[in-house]
Write a structure and sequence with these properties.
Layout (H helix, E strand, L loop, with lengths): L2 H13 L5 E12 L9 E17 L4 E6 L6 E4 L3 H4 L12 H16 L8 E7 L9 H16 L6 H16 L6 H7 L5 E6 L5 E5 L7 E7 L10 H16 L12 H7 L2 H26 L6 H13 L6 H12 L4 E5 L6 E7 L3 H15 L5 E5 L6 E2 L2
Parallel strand pairs: 3-5
Antiparallel strand pairs: 1-2, 1-12, 2-5, 2-6, 3-4, 6-7, 8-10, 8-11, 9-10
Helix pairs in contact: 3-4, 3-5, 4-5, 4-6, 5-6, 7-9, 8-9, 9-10, 11-12
The structure holds alpha-D-galactopyranose.
Length: 393
């Protein structure tokens, strides 16, 4: 059964009626530009064909009732109570089951935009084919699908960037994950055959054609099955290091530093902070270089930039894990044009840019190498840049 049908069926089974509609939004891979978003820098992600579906309807009550295929429970909250539940206090777990905080957090963040407007009760059922915890933004896909559904049902008429901001607010303040805005923006602005260049300071975007298909290239996702969570640990720590680096340089954010500032940074900070700063500063430049290379020379010219990005995350930002390094190294040794881990790190997925004819051999080689290393089997599949949110039914 497709995820679309699963959402519809769950809705009917849970709420005893047909939904008014089904809305969906995609996950993403990031082509390049990692951990630069919360430093007000540049990113170049694209939306993938994997999507999350929200079947939804106004229910004639003043409650939001939520179900999902991720959990057995049904969560019911009066709309008027959302303001008492969120924001989740820093460091605490949400007061509702975590899976439902993505959905209810979006309702809350939308409601907060116009607290005096009516926000009638809704029923929502969620199903998804975006792998969870793989670094493919399953959470932004939920937020995007729910924001799109409520935008229509509550007749809010918000544009995709406004809905991306709502999703990010839900993620930061309801779920409590201190992430940037890349995932929500890439989900909401996805276009077939194009990546989205995002200036994470101004939120200006530009659609950059990737030309993968016409160049005979595929993007392979190698999901290592090593699961991460961004609400805790390493992600938060990296973010703090970046803020400290910016403070020591006397700038608002690392967006305001360039490669020319690195010698000065070396004098001002300890080795670890310096390496975190160096990753961000060089990564921002690599994003700009990748956009320029795609536009002037095409996708076969971006391989070295992807490889340099991975090395920087492995050695300077230290967010890779052995499974990701093995995936990248093996893909490159077997003919990939470029490869790098994608997303927040500490697990999740790598991407490899591979000529169509080499997909089978790269997949086979990574599969064998993972088995030899004693790793869990990787889940390997191709993705194409795909469209953003839509109403499916
Ligand atoms: C996660 C976060 C994003 C971004 C990436 C790293 O996906 O949700 O905001 O910081 O990690 O680039």
């Amino acid at each position: 059964m497709s995820a679309l049908e699963a959402a519809r069926e769950l809705f009917t089974g849970s709420f005893g009626a047909r939904p008014d509609g089904v809305w969906s939004a995609p996950g993403r891979v990031n082509l390049i530009g990692e951990h630069t978003d919360y430093n007000e820098g540049f990113v170049l992600p694209f939306a993938i064909p994997h999507r999350t579906f929200a079947a939804a309807a106004l229910n004639g009550t003043d409650e939001i009732r939520v179900r999902s295929t991720f959990a057995d429970d049904r969560v019911v909250v009066p709309v008027a109570d959302l303001g008492g539940i969120f924001p989740t206090p820093a460091g605490a777990a949400p007061a509702v089951p975590e899976w439902s905080a993505y959905v209810l957090g979006v309702a809350w963040a939308l409601w907060m935009l116009q607290p005096d407007a009516p926000a009638p009760g809704v029923d929502i059922a969620i199903a998804s084919d975006v792998p969870v915890g793989a670094g493919l933004s399953s959470s932004a896909a939920i937020e995007g699908a729910v924001a799109s559904a409520l935008n229509d049902l509550w007749e809010l008429d918000l544009d995709p960037v406004a809905l991306a901001r709502v999703g990010r607010r839900a993620e930061n303040e309801a779920v409590g994950a201190p992430t940037g805005i890349m995932d929500q923006m890439s989900s909401m602005l996805g276009r077939p055959d194009a990546a989205t260049f995002i200036d994470c300071r101004s939120l200006e975007t530009r659609s950059v054609p990737t030309g993968f298909a016409s160049a005979g290239l595929d993007v392979l996702v190698i999901d290592t099955q090593v699961r991460h969570a961004h609400a805790t640990g390493g992600y938060r720590e990296r973010r703090a290091s970046c803020e400290r680096g910016a403070e020591l340089l006397g700038i608002r954010s690392l967006r305001d530093a360039s490669v020319a500032d690195l010698p000065r940074a070396e004098e001002l900070m300890d080795d670890v902070t310096l390496r975190r700063v160096r990753h961000i500063v060089t990564e921002n430049q690599r994003v700009l270089d990748t956009v320029a290379a795609l536009q002037s020379r095409g996708p076969r010219a971006i391989g070295d930039l992807l490889v340099a990005s991975h090395a920087s995350m492995r050695d300077d930002f230290e967010i890779s894990v052995p499974e990701l390094d093995t995936a990248v190294d093996t893909a490159l040794a077997n003919g990939a044009i470029g490869a790098r881990m994608t997303g927040g790190g500490f697990g999740g997925a790598a991407i490899a840019l591979v000529a169509h004819a080499d997909v089978g051999s790269v997949t086979g080689a990574v599969t064998r190498e993972f088995a030899d290393a004693g790793f869990a089997a990787a889940h390997i599949f191709t993705v194409t840049p795909s469209e953003g949110p839509r109403r499916d039914a």
